[in-house]
Each structure stands twice: as C-alpha cells, then as structure tokens.
Amino acid sequence: MKTSDFYFELPPELIAQSPADRRDQSRLMCLDRKTGEIGHRRFYELPALLRPGDCLVLNDSKVIPARLFGRRVLYNEARGESALGGAVEVVLLRDRGDGVWECLTRPGRKTRRGTRLFFDGCAPSDAKLTGEVIDEIEGGNRLIRFEYDGVFLELLDKLGQMPLPPYIREKLADAGRYQTVYARVPGSAAAPTAGLHFTPELLNELERNGVLLATVTLHVGLGTFRPVKVQNIEDHEMHAEYCEIPPETARAVNDARREGRRVIAVGTTSCRTLESRAAEDGTLAPYAGFTNAFIYPGYRFKCVDGLITNFHLPESTLIMLVSALAGRENVLRAYETAVRERYRFFSFGDAMLIV
What we know:
This protein is an alpha/beta fold. It has 2 domains: 3-63 and 172-354, QueA-like (3-Layer(aba) Sandwich); 67-159, Beta Barrel (Thrombin, subunit H), CATH 2.40.10.240. Helix content is 19%, strand content 29%. The chain is built from 7 helices and 17 strands. The protein has helices spanning 46-49, 152-159, 200-208, 247-258, 268-277, 317-326, 328-340, and strands at residues 27-31, 38-42, 55-59, 61-63, 67-76, 81-97, 100-106, 116-118, 129-136, 142-148, 185-188, 212-218, 241-245, 263-266, 287-291, 306-310, 351-354. Helix 6 packs across helix 7 (328-340). The two termini are 24 Å apart. The mean pLDDT is 92.
C-alpha cells in the first residue's frame, strides 16, 4: 500500500491547541468496524457504550518533563580553558541505562560526539546536571551520558519541560492536562493521548458497570509520530519502544478471550503492546522488553476487539493502525465526517470508539 492511500484534507483550525474544559466533555465518534456506521456521542457517555465484562486496557506510562534547555561547553585546548557555547535543546527519548539516554538535539550540527552540555543555568563547574554526547546514531539522534547529583527524575522535575507536540503552539496552562489521570510509570516523551479523556469518576462508573480495567506500560517515544517518508508503507521502520505486560493483565485478557468478552485497547500504544506479544490464538504471557510493531491494513488482529483513539495525522502510522482494525475506507469516511462535523484533531482533540 502507498503512504498516499492514507491522506485526507485537514483544515489547520481543527488541530486542537488546548484541552477541553473537562476531560470527559470531548466529543466521541462511534464507528462500527464491520458496517462502517457512524454515531456521535460525548466521552462521558462511554459507560453506556461498553458492555459488562469488557476488558479495557489502558497505558499507564507517565510523561516525564523530557525537554531540557542548556548550553554547550567549549574547551580551548591551547589555553586549557572552558567557555560557554550556544544554546541547546535536548529531548529525552529512551533510557539506555547507566545514565545514557537516546535524545533528540537541536541544533544537531552543534552537538557532535564529544560535545559537553550543562543544563541548570549556573557555571558548568557548579551545574547539578551535565552531559556528554557519546555517539551519533541512525536517524540523527544522539546518545548522551548524563552526570548529576541526586535523583535524575527529581532534577527533571526542576529543570525540564513537558515536550508538547510541535503542532501545539499555545502554552499549556496546566501541565497535568498532558497526563492521564492514571499515569503511574515515568518514562514517556509524549502522552498516550487517547487516555486524556478519562476522569477518576468515569473510571469508577465503568467499574461499577462491570467493565474490567487493566493496564500495560508503553513508554511513548517520538518515533511513534515520526512521519512515514517512504512511498510503500511496508518499507517504513518503527522505532523500538519499551513496554510491559504485567501478569495480572495477561490473566485478565486471557480470561476475557476465553469467555468471549471483548478486549478494548485505550490508544494505539496499548493496542500495539497487546498485539505485539499475543500468540496466534490471542493469548498473552507477561512481558517486559521492547516492541517496534507496525500495524497496517492486511494485519490480522489476534487479541484486540476494539479501540478508543484520537483523530490522527494524515499519512501517519497511527491512522494506518486504525485502518487495519476498521478498514481503510471506513476510517477515511469517518475522518471526512469528522472534518465536516468540526471535530477537534490530535493530542487535545476529540475521540473515536471503534468496536
């Protein structure tokens, strides 16, 4: 299939710049994956749309303040002196262990191997967080070894910012709105945005109605949103992302499938985590490791029966996954309807329920 097969016209004004006043007040398009029938609801009506016994799987990854602004340290070998260089932006993408992170850096041409960085605004010798570029890897990302005093995540809370997607141009008044209410495990560079619509009250109502809640963890990297630059989608390679399926979630999903109950993933990240580890018969085993699963039309779903998701970019791997579940024609027709009905798109936009 061609990347252009997943193109649609999107007016820029439909790209949501801020979240809804209340998380669950967002609109909810309902798409029947078999018939293509479309309905229009609000997200707070979700309990009436799910069945008792449905297993709802959420991604509990927590966004870290992964965007750091620092300066380069210039060293004059002849004089044996250090001086301050220009400004640098670093976005943490993936923890490689032992203080080493895979990062996106700007400007890339100024952050070659051996470049020293510091991040907390004082003299380099007094900085509590410094780093050194130790490698340049495929795709232009950098490996940076950080040195710090104290706890790394605590330093990020003080020095870092939320790495909002580039299409969001407005400053976020409340950083907590780019975090799900059930976020628990720090590690993501971007939010699993389908979960932003849930409130504690809505989750409680779902459980009272007999919906079973289960969690997986997938730390979202920016590779999830990397543009597809190849003509044939089969040639696109996904970046690997760390994920975990706890034993209790594997049991809950296996019980649901054995008893004929639906498994509904909240977000493409939850969907990819489940499908990448499901056996041919749909059963799961506990897992901790990496996935680079790329799901597009022609894929046979083994585990997931339904999906809650936001509205995605044209020609993205995300709309390709949704099309694999519901059919490309159905999805493009639904997106045309969403544009006509003035739905809000992307991270802070409205949602879709596909069953």
